[in-house]
Amino acid sequence: MKLTLEFITDYIDNKILENEEILKIKFYDIVVRKKLSKEQVANFLEYSTIRLKNMGYKIYEQGESYRYNGNEYKVDTDLFYVAIKENSEKI
């Protein structure tokens, strides 16, 4: 698969449609289903986190703790990162 900015934008937009407040970017979705190379994965992660930060999301990477819906969680190893809308009332 060829990695394009359009792919990254569409992927993020679809995640936002699923749940605008919290996005979970899964290893399986990016590496296994989309069959991206290590270089493509690195580029995807770089560009997607920049876009989400510009949209007002806070990014939590593997092993980091975050609060959502009054509970504390840790980003599991099956996730690249979790993005939470900074103005979300559920933080």
Highlighted features:
alpha+beta; two-stranded antiparallel ribbon; 3 helices; 27% strand
Tell me the β content: 25-35%
Helix tally?
3
Uncertain stretches: none
Biggest sheet statistics: 3 strands, antiparallel
Order of strands, main sheet, comes to 1-5-2
Total strands: the figure is 5
Described by the principal axes of the CA atoms, the overall outline is globular
Q: How many domains in all? A: 1
The averaged pLDDT comes out at 92
**End-to-end span in angstroms?**
36 Å
> What is the gyration radius calculated from CA atoms?
13 Å
Helix content: 40-55%
The SSE string, one letter per element, is HEHHEEEE
Q: Give the helix/strand class.
A: alpha+beta
What does this 3D model show about the protein?
By secondary structure, the protein is of the alpha+beta class. It has one domain (5-85). Helix content is 42%, strand content 27%. It has three helices and five strands. It has helices spanning 5-18, 27-33, 38-54, and strands at residues 22-26, 57-61, 65-68, 71-74, 79-85. The strands form two sheets. The chain has a three-stranded antiparallel beta sheet. Strands 3-4 form a two-stranded antiparallel sheet. Strand 3 (65-68) and strand 4 form a beta hairpin. Helix 1 crosses helix 3. The radius of gyration is 13 Å and the shape is globular. The N and C termini lie far apart (36 Å). The mean pLDDT is 92.
